[in-house]
Specification:
The protein is an alpha/beta fold. It is built from 13 helices and ten strands. It starts with a strand and ends with a strand. It comes from Kangsaoukella pontilimi.
Length: about 300
């Protein structure tokens, strides 16, 4: 069998050291249906990359576990979503945990409320999932929770941050009294300034959890705007709206160079800045996003050589 060596592609916008450091050990998100389109994740993602598996309402748990099993077998860190509002009860939660562990050796989870308005069962929030103690009993070593740099009107209808902030403080306290490694992984946004301000406020409130900032990977502008609106992205949507008004840029894909470069520069100047990692939402495709990250110098490591 031939041995293929995958090398970092050159790019005219070669990554500077700040961006390369900022993108190191990035994570990425997939869904079972998008994962099916990827022939070999090892050819496009750095070895050991953390891969989140988004659990959209209606996706069978069998598909989620099969995707986790495939990624785990390929050597990736697998972190499936556990959306509280689509989990009927503790029995279902325990069953999901057992399946992930027994079939895919999963020990990490992203806990979140989920994208449905009304709970389908006993759980309404990620905090209720944590309070069951089932993740601790099962030996999960890492639990991530959701963050919202531009607020979340489902949680704070008035547009403020009071409820979101209180929830993060509760989760930080939970982290202090348990052995789980925890972090905040956020919704994506398009402006560095508001992200920096939010991260600093979180830190100032005594919430010491590291932040994995959500970044939307390269995609067609129309696709990006559609997802941004659907996901409730806030004021930073104006970055896309302004771009859409420029005819010369309308047909070009959106790429997150500006926001990543600004955040990287801030992190380099302020090493104690709470944002520690980048988490990609590959809205324009997993391969496209992975190639963008690689071309900017960021990686957990370079993609492993794989046998043809």
């Amino acid at each position: 069998m031939a041995l293929l060596n995958f090398k970092r592609k050159t790019d005219t916008r070669a990554a500077n050291g700040d961006v390369e450091a900022f993108l190191n050990d990035y994570s990425i998100e997939v869904m079972p249906r998008t994962a099916e389109k990827v022939e070999d994740f090892r050819a496009i993602l750095p070895e050991g990359t953390r891969v989140y598996i988004a659990h959209i309402d209606g996706t069978p748990i069998e598909d989620m576990v099969a995707t986790a099993k495939r990624l785990s077998a390929d050597g990736f860190q697998v972190m499936p979503h556990f959306p509280a509002r689509i989990i009927a009860n503790e029995a279902m939660l325990g069953d999901w945990i057992a399946r992930y562990q027994g079939e895919a050796d999963v020990k990490q989870a992203l806990l979140l409320a989920g994208g449905v308005n009304e709970p389908k069962g006993a759980f309404d929030s990620s905090m209720q999932l944590m309070e069951t103690g089932l993740f601790d009993k099962a030996g999960f070593t890492r639990l991530h929770v959701a963050g919202h740099p531009e607020g979340n009107r489902d949680i704070d209808p008035d547009g403020g941050e009071a409820n979101v902030s209180a929830a993060l403080k509760w989760k930080a306290a939970f982290n202090e009294r348990t052995d789980a490694e925890m972090a905040i992984v956020t919704q994506f946004a398009f402006e560095a300034g508001p992200i920096i301000d939010w991260a600093n406020r979180v830190q100032a409130e005594g919430i010491g959890l590291p932040i994995h900032i959500g970044i939307a990977g390269p995609a067609k502008l129309q696709t990006m705007i559609k997802f941004a609106i659907a996901c409730g992205v806030g004021p930073s949507l104006r970055v896309l709206q302004k771009r859409a008004m420029d005819v010369s840029k309308l047909v070009l894909p959106y790429e997150p160079d500006d926001v990543v470069a600004a955040l990287a520069a801030h992190k380099a100047a302020h090493p104690d800045f709470a944002i520690s990692h980048v988490h990609f939402f590959p809205l324009g495709g997993i391969k496209t996003c992975a190639e963008w990250a690689m071309s900017r110098g960021g990686a957990s490591a370079r993609p492993a050589a794989v046998s043809a």
